[in-house]
Amino acid sequence: MQSSMPRIGVIGTGAIGGFYGLMLARSGQDVHFLLRSEYQAVLDKGLTVDSWVHGMLNLNPVQAYRDVADMPACDWLLVGAKSTTNAELAPIIAKAAAPGAKVVLLQNGLDNEADLRPLLPDDLHLIAGLCYVCLYRTAPGVVVHQDNGLIDLAYHSGPAGDDTARAAVLSEGAELFRQAGIKAREAANLESARWQKLVWNAAFNGVSVLLNGGTKALLDNPASWQLIRDLMAEIVSAAEAQGYSMPEQYPEKLLKHTHTMPDYQPSMYHDWLHKRPMELDNLYGKALEKAAQAGCAMPKTEALLQMLRFIQDRYLAAD
């Protein structure tokens, strides 16, 4: 750990950024939040997390900013905005980052870091943050936290030139989360970790939109249960075709764990509900491309993506 307290910035203070940022700030860390439409609400009432794990939490006052030019340069940046906006976020990240800052993408899907890397200064560390957490936003500055919170950190690229240097960066980041009461792990292989998380995300996100249901309804019905199980199996096969090992009987383990969770609507469900662009390319398109290159067919995943594109095209065209 560095001797002085690092300054942490949150870009994209929605459900993910709001939850992790509030937890870090409540532990006494120096956290600064960049907001747009929710700026005034957070300035007036602070950030609130209704946590089924930690209780009702409120952070007020909040070090909040509407313009990145007003933010102090940050040593760590947590990017909670959706991957669909990464091209627009790149100059904001560069402006908010102190020299040599560590940028953690708290995003779903594949290739987020690879797509963003060419748009960032070379001196910034780029890290994947894989969040295992049930969250949703109910109002400006108000987040409901239903379950979990574990985060995996995996180094993608930057000035850390060898395994020892990369491990030191990840250890520093994991310790920041642990001080806030959040379980954090350092992942050795970024691509393997991304594919492993995709098994749950690709199945439940898209099917929740297509069938308009949360996890309980989807698991209670034999037809939707089987569809989710088949989609999970396709993702596992695609990962293994590329040489990434998956835990034994992984779909069954995920389904069993999901049965123990509170009823949950994944993030894509809320994007569909509020008619926002869905993360279709990073959750499905990239996976299909990589699977095809490895000679692995994913027919049900491909059909799911086609239906989701139809749904998204219709509501975006209506706006």
From TrEMBL:
Residues 189-312 form the Ketopantoate reductase C-terminal domain. InterPro entries: 6-PGluconate_DH-like_C_sf (IPR008927), 6PGD_dom2 (IPR013328), ApbA (IPR003710), KPA_reductase (IPR013752), KPR-Related (IPR051402), KPR_N (IPR013332), NAD(P)-bd_dom_sf (IPR036291). Residues 8-156 form the Ketopantoate reductase N-terminal domain. Pathway: Cofactor biosynthesis; (R)-pantothenate biosynthesis; (R)-pantoate from 3-methyl-2-oxobutanoate: step 2/2. It catalyses: (R)-pantoate + NADP(+) = 2-dehydropantoate + NADPH + H(+). The keyword Oxidoreductase applies. GO terms for biological process: pantothenate biosynthetic process. Keywords: NADP, Oxidoreductase, Pantothenate biosynthesis. GO terms for molecular function: 2-dehydropantoate 2-reductase activity. GO terms for cellular component: cytoplasm. Its EC number is 1.1.1.169. Belongs to the ketopantoate reductase family. Catalyzes the NADPH-dependent reduction of ketopantoate into pantoic acid. PANTHER family: 2-DEHYDROPANTOATE 2-REDUCTASE, PROBABLE 2-DEHYDROPANTOATE 2-REDUCTASE. This is 2-dehydropantoate 2-reductase.
